[in-house]
Every structure is written in C-alpha cells, then in structure tokens.
Amino acid sequence: MTDIRLFDYLADQLNSHPLERAFGRKIDGKWQYLSTAQVAELANRASRGLLDMGLRPGDKVASVVYQTTPEWVVVDYALLQIGVLHVPMYPTISAREYEYILNESEATYCLVGDGDLYDKVALAKTRTPALKEIFSFPGRSDCRSWEALLAPPDADLAEVARISAGIRPDDLATLIYTSGTTGNPKGVMLTHRNIVFNVEALRRIAPIGPGDCILSFLPVSHVYERVAVYAYTAYSASVAFTGTDNLGGENGDLRSLRPHFFTCVPRLLEKVYDRIYDKGLELGMIKRALFFWALRLADHWDFDRQPRGLEALKWWIADRLIFSKWREALGGRVKAMITAASACPMKVLRTFNAAGIPVREGYGLTEASPALSFNGFQPGGAMLGTVGPALDGVTLRIEAGPDFRPGEGEILAQSPGVMKGYYKQPQQTAEMIRQVDGEPWLATGDVGMLVDGPGGKKYLKITDRKKELLKTSGGKYVAPTPIESMLKEHRLVEQAMVVGENLKFVSALIVPSADGLKAWCEKHGIPWTTLEEMIRHPKVLERYWKLIERINPNFSHPEQIKKFTLLSGVWEPAKSDGSEGELTPTLKLKRRVILAKFAAEIEAMYQ
Known about the structure:
Blueprint: H1 8-16, E1 23-27, E2 30-34, H2 36-52, E3 60-64, H3 70-80, E4 85-88, H4 95-105, E5 109-112, H5 117-125, E6 133-136, E7 144-145, H6 158-166, E8 172-177, E9 187-191, H7 192-205, E10 213-216, H8 223-235, E11 238-241, H9 253-257, E12 261-264, H10 266-281, H11 285-298, H12 309-329, E13 336-339, H13 346-354, E14 359-364, E15 371-374, E16 395-399, E17 409-414, E18 421-422, H14 426-432, E19 433-436, E20 439-452, E21 458-465, E22 470-471, E23 477-478, H15 480-488, E24 493-499, E25 506-512, H16 514-523, H17 531-534, H18 538-551, E26 561-566, H19 591-597, H20 599-606
Parallel strand pairs: 1-11, 3-4, 3-5, 5-6, 6-7, 10-11, 12-13, 13-14, 25-26
Antiparallel strand pairs: 1-2, 8-9, 9-18, 14-15, 16-17, 17-20, 19-20, 20-21, 22-23, 24-25
C-alpha cells in the first residue's frame, strides 16, 4: 500500500508538471485560473495563518459552498498539510442540520460561499459554542474574507513543514457527514490512506492526461467529487469549476471549455437526454425520422460490439448525421465520463455510448471513500446492467438471507478505502462494520448479486436497498428501486416512489416531467394550462396508466403497480421555507418524509 498523503499530490504536480491553469472559475464572464505554484504558495500561507490562529492537528474547520472555487482547494490543501480535519457540509441542508454537524464535530471555524449559506450558518452559530468565527470565500461582504487566514508572503513556514513531515497515511484527513435518508447525519472518519486508495484506482481507470481540461460541477461536500479533484491534481489536469446551471446552451461552459472529462450523476445525463429528445421532436419530417432512427439504433448498442457489413454502414450514417452533433454539444473533446451516486437508466447509458461519448458507471458509498466497483474503459472491462467488477484490492461478498432471491443478498465489502468509523458513534460503527466469520466487513445496506461477465470476472449487479424492501400485508417482499428506475426511464416521469409497506397492494406516487408532459399534450391536441390542472385531465391519467401497464409485465404479480397518483410539485433536497426536503443532498428519496407528506394521497389509493 502506498504511503502517499493527499497533500503530496499537489507537491508532485508542482515538481513534475506545474500548470499555469491549475484551478479556475469564471469571474465576470471570464475564466480566471490559479497556477500550481500559486495554489501551493497560498496553501502554505493559509496553513501558517491557521496555526497562528491557534489551530493544531486534530482540530476541525468546516466549509460549505454551492460551487467549488480554487480558493476552496487552497484551504483544503492548507488544512490537510497541518492535520486539521476539514468538515465539508452540503449546501442544501437546513440550519438545524448545520447546528448538529458543527456541534458534534466541534468545528472552531467555518468558511462559506455565496447565496444563503452565511445566513444559515450564522443562525446555527448562535447555538454552537465551539464555532468562533465564519469566514467567506470570494463574493461576500458580511464577514471576514478567507484571505484573512493568510500569513504574510514572507512568513516562516518551518512549523508547517515540521507538522506536514509528521503526518502519516493512516492519520485522519477529513470528516464527511453523510446525507442519511433517516435520522441525523453521521460523520464518516476517512484517513489519507482511505482516500488515496480511491485516487490511485481512478488514476488507473480514467483516460486523463497531463494538461487535459476538466469540468467540475458536482459538490465537493460529497466524497465522490472530492476524490475526483485529488485525482485531477495527481493527473496534472487543468480543472475549471462551474455550476450545473451553466453547462448547456450555445454559450454554456461545455461548449466554451470543450472539456476532456467530467464526473456526473445519472439525473444530469437524463436531463441532457431529455433535451436531446425534445430537440428531435422539433426537427422537420425527414430530419426527425433520421433522428429517431438513430435513437432506435442506439437501443442495440453494447460494450465491445463490432458491427460489420450493412450494420456498420448504418452506424456510420447515424454517427455522421446525428451522433456527431451530440458530441459537439458537449464540446467535441469528451474522452470519458463517470457516473455514480444512483442507478443510471440503461437507455441513457446506451444512447451516450452509442454516440461516441464513453460513459461508465461505478458503485460505492461514503463509508468506502467511495468506490467499490467500476466498469472500466478498456475493452472487455464493462458490462451493461452492472456496476462493474470489484476494484483491485476490494473484496465483495454477497450475504444471503430469507428475504432474498437465490444468488442475491446484502453486499458486504472489504477495502483499504473503508472508513475508520463514525465520529463519536461507536454503536452505529459496529452496525456498519460487521463481524462475519471473525472478519470485519462493511455492510453496505445494498442488495445485489455477482454475475459472470467479460474477461472471466464477476460483475456486481445492484438490485435494491436492503432497508427499502417493502413487505405487503400479504407477506410478499417487494423491491421498489427497480420499479422506480423503470418508471423514471420514461420521458413523462420526473420522479417516482413505490408504496406498499404493510398494505394490500403496491401503488406509486409519480411526479410528471413538466416538459415531457407538455410536449405530449401539444402533440395530442390537449390545451396546456398548468401542471396542477393537467395531472387531473382524463386523457393524461389514461396515458400514465398505459405507461404502468407497459412496465408491469416486467415484474411479478405482487410487485405490479395497481394504482398511482400524479403529483405536481418536484421533490427537492431542501425547501426555501426551511422545511425538510423530500430528497437527500445526493438526491436519494427520503421515503419517510414523502410518506408523511403525502399520507392523504396514499390513503385515498387504498380506500
């Protein structure tokens, strides 16, 4: 196992491949970057300044931003190299949750980005005695700037160097609070070694080279993008930070930056797919026919498939006339994308890959920092319908049980990336890191199976969440996730949740896609008013029932949806009124919240 510390990646970039455009963001419409040398200098000055403020190894500093900035990277490396634990928080949680995290972690300082973040943290500060002061990243004037942390340019860095030299790979690097679907968030304790294992795994997988352009827009409060940023540093790639609202369109960052690589989540890919589909509907008759012919062709795409003869000619025509335009919409230089955090619909995966935009799906969780398995980019290294083979160094085990089908069970894992435990939560740590046959195994809570795949390897197939299995009043177990995933593959569906715990049959709450439904109504001559009114229109209800009838045969009789209710409000991670959102910050369903909020609608389906 390597003895790299996370801050060594920055030093290695400075020594081996320094960049003039290491980390950048857009300011007043223009991209501005910090060089590798500037990041290293500022990190050293911030480390010295933090020590002068009284911070010592083992202390904690929190941060929360909507959009990552180069200054956030500077502070992160500054904290890592003096052993102060960085506690990044999600920007979409409530003031109550900030209060809980700040109190449990005993963070002494917090840095905030723009928007409402200062107000939320300031409210929490009144009830968090350990928090001394809030600083801001660029763009705020209501508190001291992060630059107040910087020691003078000529400051003595001997103490910084002494502490850095003493930091070991097994020392804690960060606390990352999970966005649990139930209860309070838990602080995952991750070491340098935990995260470095994942960085090195990504370096072996992703086709990135020195100087490649990276677009980063996912939150660094999640370990997924945080690990990616360290990997980009290790690759000596140029990273541009932006927000998801700035990606698309003629003047969007994808077209202007023309990135080689980025990480994403399935929901973003679904939205891009929907926009592409809508554009196809707007084309003239001949072009529209070609467009949907190419889409049907993509339904037959598979990894490592080599079309020949007439089939190869069809693919060549589709690529020249249709798929090449999709690549251009993403900048025209994308070598690869990685998607994770939730299941990616098969149709979306097939379509992007068919268009020459390589997308691979991986699997993991914060407690594994995060990856456990991954579909690779090399020939014979990926399999549709799975999340790939286990990473080198990871061992997976399927723990069977009476509630599971043959070959299926809870996914247990052993990995150098597995956390040290939950901060101040020994009981919950013991529940998550379970002793099986005298060995510790990370109990993921996910249900899956290992299937034979390319290269003679076992590939992991995720089938459900263990804690989300429903049991009807008839005693039948139902896995809601596959049903929900199939519903969400349709362009008329934005979100869906299956209901049926202790009830006599399975039903569904469905949030329609406003754009998709509006296009359908226009096509069928149904005057559009508002989404609230349209979800009660008889022809709309009939259309959604036809969708239910189409997917039901894919499931056993107890799993089939018998009734459904359409809802007009999109589920979100947090509400502007401060109430709890229906989704976690990583966009997982908070089932208990949704069940409580729509109790009346659910009861009506069972009357």
